[in-house]
Design a protein that fits this description.
The protein is mainly α and 60 residues long. Helix content is 80%, strand content 0%.
Length: 60
């Protein structure tokens, strides 16, 4: 039971992280906004990490 609760917590945190990345990308003025939105949506966890590592720094 405790492991199941931990899995739910991790899942909810990853979902929130994904939503934050998506909203940040949509509100930002990144020139590759459409590409980043597609990457974030199609690769939820990996795309989110890639966006925060490379997408936000592309803004300047």
């Amino acid at each position: 039971m405790r492991d199941m609760n931990l899995n739910y917590l991790i899942g909810v945190l990853l979902f929130i992280f994904w939503i934050v990345a998506l909203v940040d990308c949509i509100k930002g003025n990144n020139p590759n906004k459409v590409v980043w939105i597609i990457v974030i949506i199609l690769l939820p966890f990996l795309g989110t990490i890639l966006y925060f590592l490379f997408g936000k720094t592309a803004r300047g």
